[in-house]
Specification:
The complex is a heterodimer of chains A (about 325) and B (about 250). Chain A is mostly helical. Helices cover about 75% and strands about 0% of the residues of chain A. In chain A, α6 packs antiparallel against α11. Chain B is about 35% helix and about 25% strand. In chain B, the strands form two sheets. In chain B, strands 6-7-8-3-9-10 form a six-stranded mixed beta sheet, with helices on both faces. The chains are: A mainly alpha (about 325), B alpha/beta (about 250).
């Protein structure tokens, strides 16, 4: 029997093979990225593990001695000394302090700037502001850190007379320069994506530009704006170089933002280069790395969960 | 009946593109004025000129005048929020805003800082929009959860909450099923007792069903304007006849 004339349409030909190959290539790229991420975590976790299992390490430090008060009731991080002290609480406080200051500055500024560009700025100005702010994201953090260390610290000390030149406010301002472009650009995209019909409808109801921006556009863009904040938090929490340069690196147990501090990430950066391989100190630093990783991971997860919830509520799939 | 809107030699441009030229017509109090015409003939531009919504469009400019109760709405010192409250608008696509059904309804009065007795007004406007029975038990649900037809009636109710003098409707039934369309048309005929309605529609039959008078727009001009009966049964112009009988458009 003769084959039907449109055989080539039905059977897999050469073209199909190329398509399959391309598909495999694209798919494997995705898995390479995920694989790299998993391997990094496995490596960090493996190096941190002896802190929990090794008796040798336990002679010097355990998870419990890292958080409980030391003999004289203090919390000291002095890993290189006659009697090494490993309290991570001052590092936690320092990290928290600088992240908080940075976000308190960056989030309102970035969101207000995003509202301005998407709702108020004339076309020409918008096309200027957005790329320029995004350019800020391209400044190497070591440059921002140096700027904070040399310029911002001097200004602040002249203006407020801080005892400690390098403190959480100085570092927080530097850090916010790194966070602002991220929050700004994601929030601006979310606001610009709100359909023009919403603005028309709101205006037709007698709203002025401010009311439209504040009561209609911002709520409609809330999931995206919140996602922007989550990203900004991740950047602030993990950023190393700015904090290393501008924090003073004194592991002080103080919630006062006017005093010097030391963050988790800066501690790893400063000490890992010179630590004895396989020593308790080495394992503690890796534990801190794993801890940063896990915290960032779960906060991101929680952030995404909340963004999804906001979106569902907005779309009416969730009872308010 | 008295004249509520008086359009005199009104022309409008988007940049260099002339959207409306030399429109002159008046709208009477408590009538339904239908505006028909093919796509791109300027119907929507005309409607959006009446509440100055086109002010949002860069490069939009106008000549001539539009009098509303005798006041030229293009004067510099016109309070745009007040103007837009008096000339409420419903769009072609339903635009529920973020929030619950109730929040949508109250948005207009909240924006204008009016603490009036909104509760009674909510029920009244929802009934007027033929939506009350469908949503009375779920006023606190998101407006996005409603069907397209319900959303459009919600938008109508939301506009009625402003207690406007004139209702500007821009193809309000374009995306709706026949039942929703019938409900909106019923609502319009009822509403005529309280306010004036300008209905832009692509559906010629809709104009013939509900409009008292009809204007036929073509390429930014009013070709013919008169009683709906006359436009549909005995048009004076050849283009009108061809359009309403379905020869083009």
């Amino acid at each position: 029997m003769d084959r039907p004339p449109n055989e080539r349409l039905l059977l897999k030909g050469k073209r199909r093979i190329i398509e399959t190959l391309l598909e495999t290539a694209v798919r494997s790229s995705a898995f390479v990225v995920i694989g790299a991420l998993v391997l990094i975590f496995v490596f960090v976790a493996k190096e941190a593990l002896p802190l929990f299992t090794s008796a040798d390490v336990h002679k010097e430090v355990t998870l419990w001695t890292m958080v409980r008060p030391q003999e004289n009731g203090e919390f000291v991080w002095q890993p290189v000394s006659e009697k090494p002290k490993y309290s991570i609480l001052p590092l936690a406080v320092g990290t928290l302090k600088v992240t908080l200051v940075a976000l308190l500055i960056a989030i309102p500024l970035a969101i207000l700037a995003a509202i301005f560009t998407s709702e108020f700025a004339p076309q020409l100005l918008r096309e200027l502001i957005k790329p320029v702010v995004e350019l800020l994201a391209g400044i190497p953090s070591v440059v921002i850190g140096f700027f904070a260390l040399m310029v911002v610290a001097t200004w602040l000390q002249d203006a407020f007379g801080f005892v400690f030149r390098l403190n959480a406010i100085t570092a927080g301002i530097g850090l916010s320069l790194a966070v602002i472009p991220i929050v700004y650009t994601v929030a601006e995209d979310a606001l610009s994506a709100v359909p023009q019909a919403f603005r028309d409808a709101s205006t037709a109801l007698g709203a002025n530009q401010w009311q439209t921006a504040w009561r209609v556009v911002l709520p409609a863009a809330m999931p995206g704006v919140f996602a922007a904040c989550v990203l900004g938090f991740g950047r602030a929490f993990g950023e190393t170089m700015i904090v290393l340069l501008a924090s003073g690196n004194a592991a002080m147990m103080s919630f006062d933002p006017r005093e010097s501090f030391r963050s988790f990430s800066a501690t790893i950066a400063a000490e890992l280069g010179e630590v004895v391989y396989g020593s308790p100190h080495y394992h503690v630093l890796f534990f801190i790395g794993a801890f940063l990783f896990v915290i960032t991971f779960f906060l991101n997860l929680a952030g995404h969960w909340y963004v999804d919830r906001l979106r569902a509520r907005l779309e009416g799939k969730l009872k308010a | 009946m008295s004249t509520i809107l008086e359009v005199r030699n009104f022309s409008a441009w988007y940049g260099h593109y002339s959207a409306l030229s030399d429109i002159t017509l008046e709208v009477l109090d408590h009538e339904i004025l239908g505006i028909i015409g093919p796509a791109g003939c300027g119907k929507t531009t005309f409607l959006r000129s009446l509440n100055r919504l086109n002010d949002l469009v860069p490069d939009f400019r106008v000549e001539g005048s539009i009098g509303f109760w005798g006041v030229d709405i293009y004067r510099q010192d016109v309070d745009l929020a007040a103007l837009r409250r008096k000339l409420g608008m419903v769009f072609a696509v339903p635009v529920p805003l973020p929030g619950t059904i109730l929040e949508n309804l109250r948005l207009g009065s909240r924006l204008n800082n009016r603490k009036a007795d909104a509760g009674a007004l909510v029920e009244k406007t929802l009934r007027a929009a033929y939506l009350w029975d469908e949503v009375k038990d779920r006023l606190h649900q998101s407006a996005f959860a409603l069907s397209g037809g319900q959303q459009q009636r919600l938008c109508l109710a939301r506009t009625l909450m402003l207690e406007p003098d004139v209702l500007l409707l821009d193809e309000p039934c374009s995306g709706l099923d026949p039942i929703s369309t019938a409900k909106i048309e019923e609502a319009l005929v009822e509403l005529k007792r309280e306010l004036t309605i300008i209905l832009v529609t692509n559906n010629v039959m809709q104009a013939s069903r509900v409009a008292d008078r009809t204007a036929f727009f073509l390429q930014g001009r009013v070709v013919e304007f008169g009683l709906t009966q006359q436009i549909f049964v005995n048009p004076k112009e050849k283009e009108t006849y061809e359009y309403v009988s379905g020869r083009f458009g």
